Q: What sequence folds into this?
């Protein structure tokens, strides 16, 4: 079952409506969003724990969560 706005913000905290809509449109579950967040912001710990690399949908969420690189 796709996530709700409330579920997205329960994992990510306050985020803009466009990001919420993009995340919901992936069809991912709240568990997949939690996993993506863990990979995006703490992947060394997951790799050290021997966790398998994320699947396609989690990978898509990771791409949405990671900050855009800034050019100086």
A:
């Amino acid at each position: 079952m796709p996530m709700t706005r409330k579920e997205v913000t329960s994992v990510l905290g306050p985020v803009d409506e466009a990001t919420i809509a993009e995340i919901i449109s992936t069809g991912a579950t709240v568990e997949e969003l939690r996993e993506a967040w863990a990979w995006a912001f703490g992947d060394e710990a997951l790799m050290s724990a021997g966790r398998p690399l994320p699947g396609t949908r989690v990978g898509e969420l990771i791409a949405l969560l990671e900050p855009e690189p800034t050019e100086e």
In short: The longest helix spans residues 30-48.
